[in-house]
Design brief:
Layout lengths: L1 H18 L4 H20 L10 H13 L4 H20 L26 H10 L6 H14 L3 H5 L6 E2 L4 E5 L5 E5 L2 H10 L22 H14 L7 H14 L4 H8 L4 H10 L1 H11 L6
Antiparallel strand pairs: 1-2, 2-3
Helix pairs in contact: 1-2, 2-4, 3-4, 4-5, 5-6, 6-8, 6-10, 10-12, 11-12
C-alpha cells in the first residue's frame, strides 16, 4: 500500500543518515523530493515498488515541468529519484533500475553543466568497474574532489603529491602552477593504488600498452563509461570540474577561493557558476532574511 512506499523512503533516508553519513540538509532535500515522488505515484495508483517503471519516472519529470519547476530544480528532484530507485534495485525490490537512462530536462545552453550531488555519489561509488576500477575510482575522485582539468590529472606525478597534508600541485593553463587540496578519501585511495612508498615516482596514472602516462582521451572514456553504468548521460571530465565549483559555491565558499582552486585567470570566468546556484541562493534568502516574506 501507500504506506509501504513511504516506509521504503524512510529506509532509504536512514541509510543516507547513518550508513552514508550524509548531512541533514542533504537528507531533508531528499525527503522533500521523494515525498513529491510518492504523492505522484499514489495518484497513479501505484501501491508498491513493483509499480515503479521508467514511464512513471518520466511522467513524474513531466509533471514537475508542467507545474513550472525550473529545469535545474527538476533535474535535482530526478537525481533524488535516481538515488531512491538505485536503493530499491540494490535491495532486490525491483529487478531493473526504473530510473536508469531517464534523461533530465535540458538545461539552458549558456549555463555550465553540473551534476546534482546524489548523482556524483552514485558515479563515484558505483560507476567504476572492470579491471581498471581502482584507477578509475581514484581518477573520478580527483576530478570532482579537486576540480582538475583533464590535462592536469593526466600530468600528475607522485612528486606532486603531499599525502599527509592532502595537497597536490598542478601545472595549469599558461604553465601556471597552483596547489589544490584533496579529501581524506583520496588519501586512502592513493595508499591503495600505490602502497609502496619506494615506487612513488613518475606518473600517478601510467598509460596502457607501455605508454608513460594516461592520455586525456582515456580519462574522457573512463568518465563516460562510469557514468553510463549508473544511468547518467552526457557526463564528461569537464562536468565534474563544473560540479566541483558549483557545489563549493552552494556550500558557501567565496568566489575568490573558487577562482584560485580552479586556476582561473579572471574572476569573470568563475562568476558563470553563480548562475547555476541561483535557486540555492533564493532558498537561503527566503529562509534567512527577516523581510523575505514581506
Amino acid at each position: 500500500m501507500a504506506d509501504s512506499l513511504s516506509s521504503l523512503v524512510d529506509g532509504f533516508l536512514d541509510q543516507l543518515r547513518y550508513r552514508l553519513n550524509r548531512s541533514e540538509n542533504t537528507t531533508v532535500n531528499y525527503a522533500v523530493d521523494l515525498a513529491q515522488f510518492v504523492e505522484f505515484l499514489q495518484l497513479e495508483g501505484v501501491e508498491g515498488p513493483e509499480g515503479i517503471n521508467r514511464d512513471r519516472v518520466r511522467g513524474f519529470l513531466r509533471s514537475l515541468m508542467g507545474y513550472g519547476f525550473a529545469p535545474t530544480s527538476a533535474a535535482r528532484k530526478l537525481s533524488s529519484v535516481r538515488g531512491f530507485t538505485a536503493y530499491l534495485t540494490r535491495e532486490g525490490l525491483v529487478e531493473q533500475d526504473p530510473a536508469a537512462g531517464v534523461r533530465g530536462p535540458k538545461l539552458p545552453a549558456n549555463l555550465p553543466r553540473a551534476l546534482a550531488y546524489p548523482d556524483v555519489v552514485r558515479l563515484l561509488e558505483e560507476g567504476p568497474g572492470g579491471r581498471h576500477a581502482q584507477r578509475d575510482r581514484l581518477m573520478l575522485e580527483l576530478l570532482y574532489g579537486s576540480g582538475l582539468r583533464v590535462s592536469e590529472a593526466a600530468g600528475l606525478d607522485w612528486e606532486d603529491l603531499e599525502p599527509e597534508e592532502r595537497w597536490l600541485r598542478v601545472l595549469g593553463k599558461g604553465q601556471k602552477g597552483r596547489a589544490v587540496p584533496f579529501g581524506r578519501g583520496v588519501k586512502e585511495l592513493l595508499q591503495d593504488w600505490r602502497p609502496d612508498p619506494v615506487t612513488r615516482q613518475g606518473p600517478v596514472f601510467p598509460g596502457e600498452r607501455g605508454a608513460p602516462r594516461i592520455t586525456p582521451r582515456t580519462i574522457h572514456r573512463l568518465v563516460t563509461q562510469s557514468a553510463r553504468r549508473v544511468g547518467l548521460a552526457g557526463v564528461t571530465p569537464h562536468t565534474l570540474r563544473h560540479s566541483f565549483a558549483t557545489h563549493l559555491l552552494e556550500g558557501g565558499a567565496s568566489l575568490r577561493v573558487v577562482q584560485e582552486l580552479l586556476g582561473h585567470e579572471s574572476l569573470l570566468t568563475t562568476q558563470r557558476y553563480l548562475d547555476i546556484t541561483s535557486d540555492q541562493m533564493k532558498r537561503s534568502y527566503e529562509q534567512a532574511h527577516p523581510r523575505a516574506g514581506g
